[in-house]
Amino acid sequence: MQNKGLIKLFAFLFGLVSIYQLSYTFITNNVEKKAATYATNSISSTETDYLDQRKDLEVKYLDSIGEESIMGFTTYNDAKKKELNKGLDLKGGINVTLQISVKDILKGLANNTSNAKFNEAIANADAASKNSSDTYVDLFFQEFDKISSDTKLASPEIFANKGLSDVINFQMTDDQVKPIIRTKIDESIISAFEVLRERIDGFGVTQPNIQREGTSGRILVELPGAKDIARAQELLSSTAQLEFWETYRPDNQGLSQFLFAANEKLKTLVEVEQPETISKPESEIDSLLSDVAQDSIDFASEVNPLISLLIPADPGGQAFVRASTQDTAQISAYLKMPEIRRLVPKELQFVKFLWERPTEGAEIVGLYAIQSNRAGTPRISGDVVSDARDDFDPRNRPAVTMSMNTKGAKEWQKLTSDANLNGTGIAIVLDNKVYTAPGVSQVGGISGGRSEITGAFTINETKDIANVLRAGKLPAKAEIVQSEIVGPSLGQEAIDSGFNSFAIAMVFVLVWMIFYYGRAGAFADVALLFNILLIFGVLTSIKAVLTLPGIAGIVLTIGMSVDANVLIFERIKEEIAKGKGKSLAIADGFSNALSSILDANITTGLTAVILFVFGSGPIKGFATTLIIGILTSLFTAIFITRLLIGWYLAAKDRKLEFSTGLTKNLFKNVHIDFLGKRKIAYIASTVLVVVGLYSLFFGPGLQQGVDFVGGRSYQVRFEQPVNPSEMATELNAVFGSGTNVKTYGDDNQVMITTPYKVDVEGIEVDAEIQNKLYTTLQKYFPDGTTFADFSVANDDKAIGIMSSKKVGPTIADDIKNNAFWAIIGSLAVVFLYILFRFRKWQFSLGAVAAVFHDVLIVLGIFSIFGKIMPFNMEIDQAFIAAILTVIGYSLNDTVVVFDRIREIIAERGWSAGENTNLALNSTLGRTLNTSLTTVIVLLAIFAFGGDSLRGFMFAMIIGVVVGTYSSLFIATPVMFDTLKNSTQEGIVEVEEK
Questions:
Q1: Distances (CA, A) of 151 to 111, 121, 147, 173
Q2: What DSSP designation does 987 have?
Q3: Given pLDDT bands bounded at 50, 70 and 90, which one contains residue 987?
Q4: Are 642 and 597 in contact (CB under 8 A)?
Q5: What is the number of other CB atoms lying within 10 angstroms of the CB of residue 414?
Q6: Concatenated DSSP letters of 88-110
Q7: SS3 for 852?
Q8: CB of 435 closer than 8 Å to CB of 455
């Protein structure tokens, strides 16, 4: 081998850099272990909320030593920034995909126009977006073109307004306006991206990840380690739309008249069951409507759709009524009905009804009547706020102080002066929730532009409010269209199971290589261990995120690394069998195996790249480790193993055998007539494929997960085993049909999937569903289990919601489309690569036929056994990753076989298939050896890698077994039959390598 010195130097430096990069992870783990031990020893488990106290003490400990020097070259704070990033499934936390509302941006650019054509196009684009993968702006332009007639986008009523006058004028055509609008939308999304990044930086999570997803208006945010999930969701989805309004007086006569009239009208519009008991005494109703003529009405005996939901307001406050938090959605729906809205008195015609922001644990909130106008614009908007800080009010309660610019200060003085004169309040509204609505006692208003938001806040809440106000408001509504939440205790379980599977797979492979190849196998093991070091070093240095599927990718890489060494060692054994000397046989073995190794790894690498492009989240992590593993395994197998063998043989009188006494004669003198049995194989495969297709189209079919159909799923753990069928019946009665419950892992754990309100956005819906789950499932938990125990993630969580996932219907369609194109793209790329390498389409046809065969059989098995197996077999993104990996593995095996066929036929000719059989038999040892080690590795992950990976691994195990069979009995026979039929006299010329 040439340039040994350079390769040694590179390997030494590569290994040294990897150790250096991983040292930061070692340091942080060591310091955090000391912090945990200190907290555990300091706070007894008998104390109330001891877990929270220990966590707080850990944080204080780490803060106190954060800047102390460690080993003379780093600190804990510095090392924390450079450690190996752990993904959501290993660390717990939240992963969300936010959809920035392009609809809101378009309306804003058009200055909230009332133009009929514009608003009709918006409505049509809304409808079309539910069944289209086109971007919203494209749909809007398409719909506007259909109905525009003589109306132009450059109309003064639409985009040729004062706000866009510097870039759009009345003379422009629609084609000239469209790119300008696209640019403006992109700028708004970039602005949203920056605002979210500023908010996340203030949230205090280490190693956050935020990135745009193409031009779709979607932003992916990952917050590994985030404990307060509700707080994180609120921070990400709030638009920070700060507004200041004047309220109506709560004793306004028109408001009382309106409520009475609305209640009477609703009696004719809605059906309300007669309550068994009256929830509020008659005196309260009389007090609420004391100025309304109601002598002839007995409210204690009549059904009152609206009034029965209302509670009198607190005296001295600015809310005019109150209600239970669980009734606010129903009351809001009533007040928005056109028939009810028409009953508003003329002097109140532009009134807005806004609810008080509910504090944690609040059961009752106030409803405010806001003085609005025809345009619905506030007296003062949040853009006048120049600074915001979390603070404390004079009574030492958490508060937020704001400073306004000069313009805002003047408007603030005018607004507060009016409120003082009218005896009304100033409603401080953030994202359509009233945070506070104080009255003003100062005559002439408040000057200086400094104001304060007070309420029943926690310190974290004031920090977050100040944070979002400083960062600025989002240019449009941000809706969570996809989310995944993993509790920290489940993350720790994933780490433990991932490490177990990794260790078991490593031990088996290391022992097997020594058992099969003796001392040469030991050298391969050293190269393999070095390969693992390099993989983790590269992952750390490029700031990649290690996920549970990523660990699976590394373990799979172990099998592929073994494959390269097996190819080399088998070729060396062949060269020795030809009578060559040891040194020449080793040189020729490495040289002759190189082509097969490169072809096999390139085909697998191509599928991994496609998986990286089309995948997201943990699947992208799987692809990342697979790509890195392919590159490092090539380097270690080709160069490191060669260096070790060369070093060993450099000494005199040393012998090196590439087998042991037990394996020396394995697969020698094997003469299987593979081609002669091809008709039997065709029949058997056809039967399997047909049975699978029948099951797919006429039988049970595939169980599509929420990734593909949309919905919410919850992994819920109980103390005792539960009956999923009984639970499904109860939950379907609450959520309606379509809710599925199945055992997930052990008998005391289930996966609940429901499409309930899947098309409704907002964290309020998430809270509603969790409340209904808790209420329905409460009887299955121990007495005293609170909603917080059920829903809140913590480090030792043993029961309740362990993880949850939500996928909106639009993004589910996109995931499904991406999965389809990923598979098609993978097949197309591989077809072209094999065509390029072998120069005959028959080779490509054989390879693709084998891949289709493998994929259809895997799909068929999942269809037939999907509801029988005791683990999750839903079709989701992980399953697509498995299918693509199966494609890569099948092609890996097929390419190695084809490479040997090409080599032998080039040497000996076609010979009616005899030499094709010879090639197949000569690679049989490598094929079975590699397949066996890979299957054992996958079985280790299947058994010990955790519940979330079992369906994924099962698909890959089936794929590897079927892929090995198809390389021998499908790919090669198809290639042989089509190539034989295209030649004359049964002779074909195959190009030299």
A1: 17, 12, 9, 11
A2: -
A3: very low
A4: no
A5: 13
A6: HHHH-EEEEEEEE-HHHHHHHHT
A7: helix
A8: yes
Mean pLDDT of 537-551: 83
Q: Are 692 and 856 in contact (CB under 8 A)?
A: yes
DSSP string computed for 346-392: GGGTT-EEEEBPPPTT--EEEEEEE---TT---SEEGGGEEEEEEEE
- Evaluated on CA atoms 602, 603, 608, 614, the torsion sign reads positive
The overall average pLDDT reported for the chain is 81
Nearest to 562 by CA among 513, 505, 503: 513
Q: What is the rounded average pLDDT of the residues 331-346?
A: 90
User: What gap in Å lies between CA 161 and CA 159, rounded to an integer?
Assistant: 5
Locus of tokens 């002439």: 444
Q: How far apart are CA 984 and CA 598, in angstroms?
A: 32
Interacting residues of 359 by C-beta distance below 8 A, sequence separation 6+: 455, 456, 457
User: What are the tens digits of pLDDT across the range 727-771?
Assistant: 888 888 888 777 888 777 778 888 888 888 877 766 677 778 888
Q: pLDDT tens digits for 426-455?
A: 888 877 888 888 788 777 778 887 777 776
Q: Cα dist. 714→457, 524, 736, 739, 742 in Å?
A: 30, 44, 17, 11, 11
Closest CA to 417 of 472, 361, 379: 379
| Segment 80-137, tens digit of pLDDT | 888 888 877 777 777 777 778 888 888 888 888 888 899 999 999 888 887 776 788 8
* Total residue count of the chain as it appears in this document: 993
Evaluate whether 756 touches 736 at the Cβ level (below 8 Å): yes
Q: Taking the model in full, what pTM does it have?
A: 0.69
Spatial separation of the C-alpha atoms in residues 553 and 895, rounded to whole Å:
21
- Evaluate whether 830 touches 894 at the Cβ level (below 8 Å): no
User: Which residue in the block uniquely carries the two structure tokens 């007086």?
Assistant: 249
Helix axes 548-577, 488-517, angle to 10 degrees: 10
CB neighbour burial string for 43-54, b if at least 16 within 10 angstroms, e if fewer: beeeeeeeeeeb
Question: CB atoms < 10 A from the CB of 475, how many?
Answer: 21
Q: What is the DSSP string of 472-518?
A: ---SS-EEEEEEEEE-HHHHHHHHHHHHHHHHHHHHHHHHHHHHHHT
Tens of pLDDT along 928-964? 887 888 888 788 878 877 676 788 788 888 888 998 8
Dihedral class, residue 869 (left if φ above 0, else alpha if ψ from -120 to 50, else beta): beta
Distances in whole angstroms, Cα of residue 678 to Cα of each of 670, 969, 971: 18, 6, 10
The better pLDDT of the pair 488, 43 is held by: 43
CB 915 within 8 A of CB 904: yes
C-alpha–C-alpha distance, residues 905 and 899, integer Å: 10
Provide the CA 827 distance to its chain's centre, in angstroms. 26
- Please give the pLDDT value at position 361: 65
Tell me how far CA of residue 668 lies from CA of 564, 702, 904, in angstroms: 20, 43, 17
Checking if the pLDDT of 992 tops 70, the result is no
User: How large is the angle between the packed helices 841-865 and 809-838, nearest 10 degrees?
Assistant: 150
Per the DSSP assignment, residues forming a β-bridge with 37 are: none
Residue 299 confidence (pLDDT): 46
Radius of gyration of the chain (CA): 34
Q: pLDDT at residue 990 above 50?
A: no
pLDDT digits (tens, 9 = 90+) for 241-252: 778 899 999 989
User: Of 932, 962, 933, 954, which Cα lies nearest the Cα of 851?
Assistant: 962
pLDDT digits (tens, 9 = 90+) for 597-621: 887 788 778 878 887 887 666 677 7
**Separation of alpha carbons 501 and 494, rounded Å:** 10
What separation in angstroms does the CA of 386 have from each of 200, 377, 392, 409?
A: 20, 20, 19, 11
